[in-house]
Amino acid sequence: MKHGAGGKWYLNAANYSDELAKELDLKEYLQEQWLNFENVFIRKIMGFSSIGLGYKLKLPLAGRLFRKAAESMIHSESKNRNPIRADGHFGQVIPLEDAQLILSGLAAEPIIQNYCMCRMMQRGVKDVCCINFGVLSEVIEKLPRFIPENTKVRLDREEAVEALEKQNKKGRIATVWFQPVPYINAICSY
Fold it and tell me: Global pTM?
């Protein structure tokens, strides 16, 4: 409700604006986060290991404490967010029609497609299924390990929608991502 202006948070044009990116000084945050992306991976966040976490989350008191700590980090709107922990970075599954609407008009430019960093970290697979826009795309373009070979990287709005629809035909669903709250800068087809 806070970032949706009474509607769907991811359809609020203010969450894509260059003004918001400047206000939150997102370029510095995103550069720090993406330069250290491998350190952000959930298995090793600031020395924290998720191995055995499922068991820990089931413990009555400890589970609540672990969950509360993780949620406060992920949903952080603090001015002092830690980009290495990926504070304020989370997403949501959305209908294809809403993803098309975002790419055809709401997403800040430039728009790029790049390797899915989650798939790279979790599976060691280089898959071009993420579409990033705004400040994040400017940051990622400077990091060659995330840029696909033999693939057009910069997309116009029509090409971005076509890339999204191609992923959908493979059976993948669209997810939209804050990075960090409330700035929206990515759609990944997962």
Answer: 0.75
